[in-house]
Write a structure and sequence with these properties.
By secondary structure, the chain is an alpha/beta fold. Helices cover about 35% and strands about 15% of the residues. Helix 3 links the parallel strand 5 and strand 6. Helix 1 packs parallel to helix 2. The structure holds zinc ion.
């Protein structure tokens, strides 16, 4: 790691050592036609979440909300400034089903309908990583690229999105965060991004690992060098999910502690009501510390996020 690696926050680039305790996968703002009535769209509520998180010991918050899903681009910098919490924003795109009326991505300048070409998407991603987010004041930039796997065979939309994410990674160095589906193929995602598109596995963060009950899968993904985000604590109503604690314990035992990140992934109002990101620090982290010692929490909440998010940013 060289001194030039930084984490790109909405208030500017940060030395990885300044990131501190980090919720590596969460949402202050998100909306999807799949979650009617559950929109996170209130800046006042978002500020309360960040203040509570900071009071519990949180320093940094990584929002995985991509383009066109109400990511609060115009509010993130002010919220970070008001609360003192570092915020990393995302570019990228989710599955097509999250965008109303097949408009993809909703709000993309110049696209009013139909599938966006991969090169056009890549250009939008690169602009948001290197110049700024539309709707924000100048220089409020994204610090990672969020994409999603499909449940089953990849759609054309997902293939184009993955190609565009890889192109934006090559242009900027930005890490890529991936939403996984329980019926999807995480190794297929890694092979597509790494084998086909040349993305370094160390720049890939896989999310929703607790959706997969096969422990050997977690281990083999970690062994390939990707970061694994254990992000289920706020995901109530997902009874099939394994508990993050069990998966973490298993991976630590297998020698993969340096690949693990923690996140609360608060995507609904209901999940926010039961604790949101603060629960990571008041519930999961103390349990991990009691079992494995405080060093493990330091690794999962501080050192690993710094390693996963810090990049030698390139100017396209
Ligand atoms: Zn998420």
């Amino acid at each position: 790691m060289t001194a030039t690696r930084t984490v790109r926050t909405v208030l500017g680039d940060l030395a990885p050592g300044d990131l501190g305790v980090t919720d590596s996968h969460d949402h202050l703002f998100i909306r999807s036609p799949l979650l009617p009535g559950q929109e996170l769209d209130d800046p006042v509520a978002a500020e309360a979440v960040l203040r509570e998180y900071a009071a519990a010991g949180g320093h940094s918050f990584v929002q995985w909300t991509p383009r066109g899903m109400g990511r609060g681009a115009g509010d993130l910098a002010a919220l970070s400034r008001a609360t003192g919490v570092h915020v990393v924003a995302a570019t990228g795109a989710h599955q097509a089903v999250h965008y109303p009326e097949d408009r993809f991505p909703a709000g993309t300048p110049g696209t009013t309908g139909g599938p966006a070409a991969s090169a056009d998407l890549a250009e939008h991603f690169v602009t948001e990583l290197s110049t700024g987010l539309p709707g924000a004041r100048e220089g409020v930039r994204a610090g990672l690229i969020k994409i999603a796997d499909d449940a089953g065979p990849l759609t054309g939309h997902t293939r184009r999105t993955m190609a565009a994410a890889a192109e934006a990674y090559h242009a900027t160095g930005a890490p890529i965060a991936v939403h996984l589906e329980p019926e999807g193929d995480p190794h297929g995602v890694l092979h597509r991004l790494h084998g086909r598109h040349g993305v370094d596995p160390d720049r890939i963060i896989l999310g929703h690992l607790t959706r997969f009950t096969d422990r050997s899968l977690h281990r083999s993904l970690a062994a390939e060098g990707a970061f694994l985000a254990l992000d289920s604590p706020a995901r109530i109503g997902h009874p099939a999910d394994l508990q993050a604690f069990e998966v973490i314990a298993d991976l630590v035992e297998a020698g993969h502690a340096e690949r693990l990140l923690l996140g609360a992934d608060t995507t609904t109002r209901t999940a926010r009501e039961v604790g949101g990101p603060t629960r990571l620090l008041t519930d999961l982290a103390p349990r991990l510390a009691r079992t494995f010692g405080p060093e493990l929490c330091e690794l999962l909440l501080v050192a690993n996020p710094a390693a996963a998010l810090a990049t030698d940013w390139r100017s396209p």
